[in-house]
């Protein structure tokens, strides 16, 4: 609980700074804050509200939120703007974009910023900080974060003679449960046991399996990968076996976008997807559902995901100070707790989970706490220099495995070679 | 007076030519130039690397796959689109019941935004409860097929959408051409007692020649250009089974930020299109309708 | 007029009638396939989420999807941007195309023939393929994230110049001579003689161009950043790529909302549209 107390102290220490009227006399400092959501959605209203509240508490600062669509669009916009000399001062971008942003030379580390002390940056879950630090510096502050969990259909569990309150805890159980949950009529399968989507975020899903099989896919410096590790190959084999050997998952690539719908349609009894889907499932599942940690291979494990707050080099000293204030404001335990409740993202500091508001929420909706309980097993999401290129090499390899074109060992060895070629120059 | 007329001509031509050069000809030359330099990254400025970008490309299996895919995609969609467009035009121009409704139905894909429609097609192709699988189950008794998640069917599924998108638009050109065929020709054929098929083969088809050529060229260009649905639905996957040159250019240029590599890729695409243009001029020469 | 209508009914044999019947069946099957996405969008948009994949005749109706789609993004602003874009692009294409086509149609010099060939290069090499370089140019011009930047690469259109030149070439010289006798200058002749006679071409080409630019996606996505400049298709993309999976009813509603102006325009003008293609000599 040391961390918790430190965070609480940090937040307390921040309060006088926030309330200080020193800047009032000067011309307002304006910062542009790029945020990766679709314009007009429910989250924009929350963010708009935070900006307004912050401005009220800090009359000398103006925060202009700009909603930039998907994460992919957002990084594209931020980098093109930065190259054109028109960068935002602050942005929420994927934690995995860290190396790209550093290599492009467009962001500053939080350690260099006034008012960002170790008490505050040390107050977040270590699982989230893994993607936010490299070379001893903190580059991102975890904010809109998520992780992978399993959702399952309790009705289907009951029909299959399984206890609806107990999810599979190991890989072997996952297979045996899935076998019981798979319903066939002759040649056709009317209900599949499990779906692990194989496009869009295939590398993310795979990383969960690799972590569970006790292998780290990249090093902290982001310049080495271990895609061809025997344990990684084993993990890919396990994923493939679900379709080809055990026949409990649809063959080929399972579409990310339609997986939740397959679940609602009772075409699949268990699915792996982001915690960001919690609200969606809660609203649309026409049956009681359970949320569980991902099962353990050699151990439990899941990568984290989602967005961090970054400050751009283009910010003036006054803007940098304002950005720190705003980030501290956003991550205050009370606000972070409410943010988690409102959006389904994982509140990023232990202190937020200790607030009465959050405790009450978890008591009424225990599924919300699954992601938090899984955090001690969490690792950083796959992120390297030239991240998109390296990730693509892995995605292609995984898809060639899942479509049964290439054996896991050959595919992952090739992905490793591709990654090597890209990363060599960064060492 | 002649001098003034020439001046007028240049003034009238000027704006269009300046913009054409600025956004078509200059970029081609600039792309060519940039394809010999490295991509600037952070602290490392761009430098001359000769043909290295092309060497990397030649050694890149994804590039070869995208090129092969693109040729299949273009050569597959062109004849099917043309045949369907012609059939549509003949039907809409004939005496079939509900011509107006048919015309609207055939033309709708042209006005629907591809980016949104791609998501509706995603539903059609969804395994098991998607529309295509329901129909194949009902009529053919097939099981669930993962249309866009298997290497074997993904490119075909994308080609179907491309044909769906462009055939109705090409129909309009055929329709206009059909309506311009002098009725006298048909009357003459009727007097000779020609069958419908003979009329079509001897009278209609030859007169549609120039239109077919025009449509073929447009369809071929679309074969390299019509990629919105692929970017939305598969992003070139699974395992690059639907990667085309333009989707790969987008990926390399705007996701990997490797503009130099993207330039080399663009040059390959342009080279292909120039070959198409040359073939058109060489083989078909002046028989086209822009004399 | 056509192959089918000119055959006297008396000569139609039973086999032929069967053939026609089969053709009708084929035509309608094709039409249903072609309209299927639109029909499905209509179905999904007016029913609650649960019915997006279940087709029951008496499913409850709702307009919530339209409301949700409308509220999910600033559509009025996107519509305005798209409207500005197509007006700007089509208007500019008309003006530049008319001027250039006039010169090409009347000139017989070899230089002009060569220049025309240079123009025709763009029929092959569309700006869509030059996004990387054109982005560089726009950045140099300081036009990134403006409506002008979305349209600028397209306004000198080889296709438009080509079509108008074809039409202008068909204008009888006598009409021009008559106008000159009445004291018209070059621009007067263009405005009073050529432009009115080319009206069908403008309509045919205009509608084609509007449909293209209303629905264009890749270039606007790359060149714009903000709500103030993004056209409606780029706005639609926010429904397309979500972490939470696809919500077909909302996408359907949004598709219908964005395509409605074009669909209406086509329904209203379809007869003129097809006829203008014919008269424009696009065949």
Structure description:
The complex is a heterotrimer of chains A (427), B (291) and C (283). Chain A is α/β, with parallel strands linked by helices and 427 residues long. Chain A is 45% helix and 17% strand. Chain A folds into 2 domains: 2-145 and 304-368, D-Maltodextrin-Binding Protein, domain 2 (3-Layer(aba) Sandwich); 147-303 and 380-426, Periplasmic binding protein-like II (D-Maltodextrin-Binding Protein, domain 2), CATH 3.40.190. Chain A has helices at residues 2-19, 42-57, 71-83, 98-103, 118-121, 126-129, 154-159, 171-181, 202-212, 230-244, 259-264, 278-284, 317-331, 333-343, 350-353, 356-364, 370-374, 387-402, 408-423, and strands at residues 29-35, 61-67, 90-94, 107-108, 133-134, 137-138, 141-153, 183-185, 188-195, 268-274, 289-292, 302-312, 378-379. In chain B, 75% of the residues lie in helices and 0% in strands. In chain B, helix 2 (52-58) crosses helix 13 (259-284), helix 4 packs across helix 7 and helix 7 (151-179) runs antiparallel to helix 10 (209-225). The two termini of chain B are 29 Å apart. Mean pLDDT of chain B is 84; it is low at 286-291. Chain C is 71% helix and 0% strand. Chains in contact: A-B, A-C, B-C. At the B-C interface, helix 1, helix 3, helix 4, helix 5 and helix 7 of B face helix 1, helix 3, helix 4, helix 5 and helix 7 of C. Chain C: Pfam families: BPD_transp_1.
Based on the model shown, name its key terms.
heterotrimer, B: 291 residues, mainly alpha, MetI-like fold, C: 283 residues, 71% helix
Short description:
Helices cover 75% and strands 0% of the residues of chain B.
Which spans of chain A have pLDDT < 50 for at least 5 consecutive residues?
1-25
Q: Give the number of domains of chain B.
A: 1
Mean pLDDT across residues of chain B: 84
Proportion in β-strands of chain B: under 5%
Count of β-strands of chain A: 13
| Residue share in helix of chain A | 40-55%
Overall mean pLDDT of chain A? 87
Q: Write down the CATH class of the largest domain in chain A.
A: Alpha Beta
Relevant CATH superfamily of the largest domain in chain A: Periplasmic binding protein-like II
For the termini of chain A, the CA-CA separation is: 38 Å
Low-confidence stretches of chain B: 286-291
Tell me which CATH architecture of chain B applies here: Orthogonal Bundle
What percentage of amino acids of chain A are in beta strands? 15-25%
Return the CATH class of chain B. Answer: Mainly Alpha
The secondary-structure element order of chain B is HHHHHHHHHHHHH
What gross morphology of chain B would you assign? Answer: flat
């Amino acid at each position: 609980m040391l961390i918790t107390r430190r965070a609480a102290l940090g937040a307390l220490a921040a309060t006088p700074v926030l309330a200080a009227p020193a800047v009032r006399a000067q011309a307002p400092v304006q910062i542009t804050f790029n945020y990766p959501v679709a314009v007009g959605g429910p989250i924009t209203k929350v963010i708009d509200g935070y900006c307004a509240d912050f401005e009220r508490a800090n009359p000398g600062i103006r925060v202009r939120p700009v909603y930039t669509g998907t994460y992919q669009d957002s990084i594209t916009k931020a980098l093109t703007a930065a190259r054109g000399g028109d960068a935002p001062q602050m942005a929420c971008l994927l934690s995995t974009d860290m190396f790209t942003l550093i290599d492009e030379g467009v962001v500053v580390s939080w350690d260099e910023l006034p008012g960002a002390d170790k008490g505050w940056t040390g107050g977040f879950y270590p699982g989230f900080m893994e993607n936010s630090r490299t070379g001893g510096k903190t580059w991102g502050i975890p904010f809109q974060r998520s992780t992978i969990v399993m959702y399952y259909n309790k009705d289907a569990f009951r029909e299959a003679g399984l206890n609806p309150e107990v999810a599979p805890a190991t890989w072997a159980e996952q297979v045996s449960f899935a076998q019981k949950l798979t319903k066939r009529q002759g040649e056709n399968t009317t209900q599949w046991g499990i779906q692990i989507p194989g496009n869009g975020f295939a590398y993310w899903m795979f990383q969960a399996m690799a972590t569970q099989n006790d292998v780290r896919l990249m090093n902290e410096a982001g310049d080495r990968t271990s895609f061809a590790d025997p344990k990684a190959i084993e993990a890919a084999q396990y994923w493939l076996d679900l379709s080809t050997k055990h026949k409990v998952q649809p063959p080929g690539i399972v579409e990310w976008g339609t997986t939740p719908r397959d679940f609602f349609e009772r075409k699949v009894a268990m699915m792996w997807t982001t915690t960001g889907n919690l609200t969606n499932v809660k609203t649309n599942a026409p049956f009681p559902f359970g949320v569980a940690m991902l099962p353990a291979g050699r151990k439990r494990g899941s990568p984290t995901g989602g967005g961090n707050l970054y400050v751009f080099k283009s910010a003036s000293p006054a803007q940098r100070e304002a950005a720190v204030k705003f980030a501290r404001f956003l991550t205050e335990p009370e606000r972070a707790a409410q943010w988690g409740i409102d959006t389904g993202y994982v509140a990023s500091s232990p202190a937020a989970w200790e607030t009465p508001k959050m405790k009450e929420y978890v008591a009424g909706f225990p599924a919300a706490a699954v992601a938090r309980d899984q955090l001690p097993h969490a690792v950083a999401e796959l992120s390297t220099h030239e991240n998109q290129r390296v990730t693509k090499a892995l995605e292609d390899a995984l898809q060639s495995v899942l479509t049964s074109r290439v054996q896991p060992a050959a595919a992952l060895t090739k992905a490793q070679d591709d990654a090597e070629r890209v990363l060599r120059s960064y060492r | 007076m002649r001098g003034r007329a020439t001046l007028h001509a240049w003034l009238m031509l000027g704006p269009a030519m300046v913009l054409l050069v600025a956004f078509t000809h200059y970029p081609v030359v600039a792309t060519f130039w940039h394809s010999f330099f490295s991509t600037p990254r952070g602290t490392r400025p761009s430098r001359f690397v000769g043909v290295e970008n092309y060497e990397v490309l030649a050694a890149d299996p994804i590039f070869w796959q995208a090129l092969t895919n693109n040729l299949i995609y273009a050569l597959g969609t062109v004849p099917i689109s043309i045949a369907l467009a012609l059939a549509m035009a003949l039907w809409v121009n004939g005496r079939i019941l509900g011509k107006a409704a048919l015309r609207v139905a055939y033309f709708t894909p042209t006005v629907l935004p591809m980016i949104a429609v791609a998501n509706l097609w995603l539903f059609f192709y969804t395994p098991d409860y998607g529309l295509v699988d329901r129909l194949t189950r009902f009529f053919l008794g097939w099981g669930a097929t993962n249309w866009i998640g298997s290497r074997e069917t993904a490119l075909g599924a994308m080609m179907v959408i491309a044909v769906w998108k462009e055939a109705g638009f090409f129909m309009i050109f055929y329709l206009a051409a059909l309506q311009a065929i002098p009725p006298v020709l048909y009357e003459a054929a009727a007097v000779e007692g020609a069958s419908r098929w003979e009329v079509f083969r001897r009278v209609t088809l030859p007169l549609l020649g120039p239109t077919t050529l025009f449509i073929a060229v447009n369809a071929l260009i679309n074969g390299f250009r019509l990629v919105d649905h692929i970017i939305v639905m598969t992003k070139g996957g699974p395992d690059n089974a639907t990667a085309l040159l333009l989707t790969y250019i987008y990926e390399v240029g705007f996701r990997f930020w490797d503009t130099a590599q993207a330039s080399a890729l663009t040059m390959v695409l342009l080279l292909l299109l120039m070959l198409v243009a040359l073939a058109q001029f060489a083989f078909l020469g002046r028989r086209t309708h822009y004399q | 007029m056509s192959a089918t209508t000119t055959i006297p009914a008396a000569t139609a044999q039973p086999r032929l009638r069967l053939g026609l019947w089969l053709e009708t069946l084929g035509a309608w099957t094709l039409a249903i396939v072609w309209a299927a996405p639109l029909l499905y969008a209509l179905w999904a948009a007016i029913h609650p989420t649960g019915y997006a994949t279940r087709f029951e005749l008496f499913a409850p109706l709702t307009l919530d999807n339209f409301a949700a789609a409308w509220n999910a993004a600033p559509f009025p602003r996107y519509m305005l941007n798209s409207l500005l874009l197509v007006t700007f692009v089509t208007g500019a294409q008309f003006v530049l195309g008319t001027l250039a086509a006039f010169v090409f149609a009347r000139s017989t010099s070899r230089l002009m023939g060569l220049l025309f060939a240079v123009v025709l290069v763009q029929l092959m090499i569309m700006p869509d393929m030059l996004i990387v370089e054109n982005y560089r140019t726009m950045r140099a011009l300081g036009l990134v994230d403006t409506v002008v930047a979305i349209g600028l690469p397209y306004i000198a259109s080889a296709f438009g110049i080509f079509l108008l030149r074809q039409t202008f070439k068909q204008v009888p010289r006598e009409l021009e001579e008559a106008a000159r006798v009445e004291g018209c200058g070059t621009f007067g002749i263009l405005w009073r003689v050529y432009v009115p006679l080319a009206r069908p071409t403008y309509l045919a080409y205009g509608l084609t161009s509007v449909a293209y630019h209303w629905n264009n996606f890749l270039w606007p996505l790359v060149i714009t950043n903000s709500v103030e400049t993004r056209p409606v298709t780029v706005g639609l993309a926010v429904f397309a790529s979500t972490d939470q999976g696809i919500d077909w009813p909302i996408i359907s509603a949004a598709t219908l909302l964005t395509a409605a102006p074009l669909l209406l325009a086509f329904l209203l003008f379809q007869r003129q549209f097809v006829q203008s293609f014919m008269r424009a000599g696009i065949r």
